């Protein structure tokens, strides 16, 4: 337990140093495109892995040290579902993460799906924008 606390303190300090040089970090939030609802496994580098255990693998180090983050969907040409990108800000600067996420949406770089109702009343997903 002591080693984990020591590592957390070290990593938090290293991230603080990074933010002396940059205002914000954009990084992948997930190692793969958003899975369809109910997907139990994904294939990553040829290996089949459980979806739930691996979808947040890139966000865990950021949460571990308590930095503010906003995850945004980024749609790539020809992809059926978006990839997740995290906007990471310095400690206690949620305003920066939110402002950058808002600007990415305003510029059309990110957009969230908007459900539409079909004639039968079923929800049908779609890309906003």
From TrEMBL:
What EC number(s) are associated with this protein in UniProt? Answer: 3.5.1.84
Q: Which UniProt keywords apply?
A: Hydrolase
Q: Which GO terms describe its molecular function?
A: biuret amidohydrolase activity
Q: Which residues form the Amidase domain?
A: 4-95
**The organism's place on the tree of life at top rank:** Bacteria
Quick check: keyword rRNA-binding in the entry?
no
Q: Name one Pfam family in it.
A: Amidase
Q: What is this protein called?
A: Biuret hydrolase
Organism field: Methylobrevis pamukkalensis
